[in-house]
Amino acid sequence: MMTKIIKDILYGVSIVSVKGNMDTAVDAVVFDSRLAKPGVVFVAIEGTTVDAHNFIPKVIEQGCTTIIAQKAVEVAENINLIIVNDTAKALGIMSANFFDNPSQQLKLVGITGTNGKTTTTTLLHKLFMELGHKSGLLSTVVNKIGNEEIPSTHTTPNPVALNELLAKMVYEGCEYCFMEVSSHSVSQHRIAGLEFAGAAFTNISHDHLDYHGTFKAYIEAKKGFFDMLPTSAFALTNVDDKNGMVMLQNTKAKKYTYALKTPADFKAKVIENQFSGLVVNMAGTELWSRLIGDFNAYNLLTVYAISQLLEQDKIEVLTILSNLESVEGRFEYIRSNGGITAIVDYAHTPDALENVLKTIANIRTKNETVFTVVGCGGDRDKAKRPVMAKIACELSDKVIITSDNPRSEEPEIIIEEMMAGVEGQYFKKTLSIQDRAQAIKTACAMAEPGDIILIAGKGHEKYQEIKGIKHDFDDMKTVKELFEKLGK
User: Fold this and answer.
1) Which of 82, 347, 394, 440 gives a 20 to 30 Å CA spacing to 136?
2) Are 40 and 28 in contact (CB under 8 A)?
3) What are the domain boundaries of the chain?
4) In this structure, what are the phi and psi dihedrals at residue 15, rounded to the nearest 5 degrees?
């Protein structure tokens, strides 16, 4: 069990006032009132739905005697009360201090953007492991310490869990860690207190407006990550994205760019794009990759650029990149015995869906039918629902609009809101089937040899969340079983 003195773990926190004994020893930092007990420090976070300051009396009843708050509260004389400017930010800094600032003991690289974060971080982890550098991974799909897998619950974990994972990586001898940095984690200060060796921006498009409110606020959240980088770090951005250079405006880090279409520090060009893979000219060398599509050419270029900024051997990097396989649920495809191709992809934003469908359009012969099975998640950005349906209709021959993770919403309402984006000329080629398994079955039954089925929105997920319950559901497993059952 780790024990730390309060004044030591508050180093770097903006403190307003102190009441009590700053030399008190604590053995944990908690922000969930249910975990509060004697010997821990409780940090009261003022969240969007719940204000933990309201639970301070309960926390004290449970035996906790050290409280961090951001507004005045009445407590007994025996309680240590430290008022800070921002408890969310303080939690990040305190968590880092409690675990001896693990991010300073390895090279931590963060990837942010709407699409490509998971693929890029996963490929980086695989690459550096192959290069002989033990590395950690923090991603939407899974967290890893070397090859040890740890289930992932959030794109970016809470500050306590995050620093504990980083501390374990240091203990296990990791030299590097590659992590996804979500816009939520920046806004909520989950990455406060971390020291990054570098950061990369992939792209930005319509997503998370339910949380950020406006696209400008969403961009500012991403930019906030680059604003916090130290002068010792590198800041890498995609200049083919119209908001790419915004990320570098105020950063103190060393600035670098990459692109497929415009002049940049790191350049690549797609030569061939087939279901068998990509041929890309990367830094003057022809690279064949098992990955598919222009969006993966960007991911590969990002990985290559970061490897060079981290001073890895160019030829060794390109050799390993040519052998790396795709990430689960990211343009993952199978071909049935009868010659039908099914693609499972996590595309859950308009931009990601458009990228995947345009990739299919570039590869297809035009003699086949492209079926798209797509839904939108509940309790998330509603504005993208009609947009995604419109994109699916414009770039597919047949569209089946279905349920994704409806969460607390009624799936038929979500489908109805998606259908609002289906224009009159597309009515005949569009179906709506609420049951996702039935929707996939319908696409499989309608498909003929040579046809292509895209199942979008859930990718790697092995569940469907309905009314707070996660039911087993796997798009890839479902389509494989249906091909076999239907004799396709």
Assistant:
1) 347
2) yes
3) 4-97, 100-321, 332-486
4) -100, 135
